[in-house]
């Protein structure tokens, strides 16, 4: 093997280790130094050291522990170098030095607090003092191990914009003195809801990209699924976590069927169900059962997962239990009060009771302010009008929907459907 090949292999191994270990490393360091920004810097320092050492010496048996030990030594050096002699820094320095004596080097397992540290990091990255955009960027950076340019590409944003969000987020956490801790029991449901919302937002941007040339960005779906599974392991008694994992797994099971050979969208009723991922479906149904067993059957994510399960269980599109889906959307509408849920219920009613029933519900949503610029409102209305034979109205609605979407693939599909309606006349 040539020198260049060895260097390439070493970089590949280090990159793989970093993706797996970075969240736990940053979480453990943040608990020690009480500063998420500093923790990430120390973790990056350890990564640089690994790049230098591992190329020559090979990857250690316990790379996570090696990185942690190196980062802790860098923390001690930094505290000494800056002569931070205030009482809290003296105590921190003594604690780090004591840990270095008690648990030296790479043979020592990472601490038993890994799970707690990761949970603290999740809640810190998704703290309500940060905007939703900042929470998403920081979560992907700290917990996903994604580089700034990767996050920027995923969301079709300029790299400086994402970098600025991350820097500001870390500065805000430091300035507001946000504690690195799991919320108190009374605060947990609200804060956990925010965390789940961030994870699902990441998943949705991957599953149905809001803009750009691609319908999907699978890497974001995979990252959200990984984060969801980590959360399920950290708080196994919270039903909505399992509900969210179930929903993401069931939706992700259709990934291969959602896009055609040329990257074009394939509608649910036209998908080849033989390409749906049966393993993800099995896992999703198991997660849904867990959520329901924990008493979370009426949770927002569990209800959506139950709807996805109706599709997953149907051997063919014609055998879909649309009446049950409509009923579940009815419950979900009661829980959320969301006009988007009502729009989805209209689709289900149109399938269960005929297009006129669906159209009546859609027409009642036309003046909803939240749906005014939502491209799926005219798209659903167009589909129902086409089924009723009102082709001129359907064409206008398909064209209006195409004008509202920012996703090129969706626009092409909607314009193609408008052309098809014209041909049917």
Automatic annotation (TrEMBL):
SUPFAM superfamilies in the cross-refs: Sigma2 domain of RNA polymerase sigma factors, Sigma3 and sigma4 domains of RNA polymerase sigma factors
Listed GO MF terms: DNA binding; sigma factor activity
RNA polymerase sigma-70 region domain mapped to chain residues: 20-83
Domain DUF6596 residues, every copy: 191-291
InterPro entries: DUF6596 (IPR046531), RNA_pol_sigma-70_dom (IPR014284), RNA_pol_sigma70_r2 (IPR007627), RNA_pol_sigma70_r4_t2 (IPR013249), RNA_pol_sigma_r2 (IPR013325), RNA_pol_sigma_r3/r4-like (IPR013324), WH-like_DNA-bd_sf (IPR036388)
GO term, biological process aspect, one: DNA-templated transcription initiation
Domain RNA polymerase sigma factor 70 region 4 type: 123-173
Official protein name in the record: RNA polymerase, sigma subunit, ECF family
Record organism: Lysobacter spongiicola DSM 21749
Lineage, broadest ranks: Bacteria, Pseudomonadati, Pseudomonadota, Gammaproteobacteria, Lysobacterales
């Amino acid at each position: 093997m040539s020198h260049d090949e060895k260097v390439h292999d070493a970089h590949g191994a280090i990159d793989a280790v970093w993706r797996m270990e970075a969240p736990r490393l940053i979480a453990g360091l943040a608990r020690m130094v009480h500063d998420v920004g500093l923790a990430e810097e120390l973790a990056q320092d350890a990564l640089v050291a690994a790049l230098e050492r591992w190329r020559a010496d090979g990857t250690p048996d316990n790379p996570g522990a090696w990185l942690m030990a190196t980062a802790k030594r860098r923390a001690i050096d930094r505290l000494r170098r800056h002569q931070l002699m205030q009482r809290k820094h003296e105590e921190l320095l003594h604690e780090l030095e004591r840990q270095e004596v008690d648990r030296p080097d790479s043979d020592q397992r990472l601490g038993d607090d890994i799970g707690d540290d990761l949970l603290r990091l999740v809640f810190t990255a998704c703290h309500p003092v940060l905007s939703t955009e900042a929470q998403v960027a920081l979560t992907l950076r700290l917990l996903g191990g994604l580089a700034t340019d990767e996050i920027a590409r995923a969301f079709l944003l300029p790299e400086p914009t994402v970098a600025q969000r991350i820097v500001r987020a870390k500065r805000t956490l430091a300035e507001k003195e946000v504690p690195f801790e799991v919320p108190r029991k009374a605060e947990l449901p609200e804060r956990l809801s925010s965390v789940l919302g961030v994870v699902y937002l990441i998943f949705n941007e991957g599953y149905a990209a809001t803009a750009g040339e691609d319908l999907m960005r699978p890497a974001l779906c995979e990252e959200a699924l990984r984060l969801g599974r980590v959360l399920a392991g950290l708080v196994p008694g919270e039903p909505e976590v399992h509900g969210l994992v179930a929903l993401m797994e069931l939706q992700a099971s259709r990934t291969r069927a959602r896009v055609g050979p040329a990257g074009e969208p394939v509608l649910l009723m036209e998908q080849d169900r033989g390409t749906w991922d049966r393993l993800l479906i099995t896992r999703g149904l198991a997660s849904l059962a867990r959520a329901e067993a924990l008493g979370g059957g009426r949770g927002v994510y569990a209800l959506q997962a139950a709807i996805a399960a109706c599709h997953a269980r149907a051997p063919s599109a014609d055998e879909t239990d649309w009446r049950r889906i409509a009923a579940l959307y009815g419950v979900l509408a009661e829980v959320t009060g969301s006009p988007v849920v009502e729009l989805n219920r209209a689709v289900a009613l149109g399938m269960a009771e005929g297009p006129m029933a669906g159209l009546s519900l859609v027409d009642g949503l036309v003046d909803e302010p939240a749906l005014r610029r939502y491209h799926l409102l005219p798209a659903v209305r167009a589909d129902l009008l086409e089924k009723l034979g009102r082709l001129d109205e359907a064409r206008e609605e398909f064209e209006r929907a195409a004008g509202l979407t920012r996703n090129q693939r969706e626009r092409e599909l909607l314009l193609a459907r408008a052309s098809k309606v014209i041909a049917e006349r």
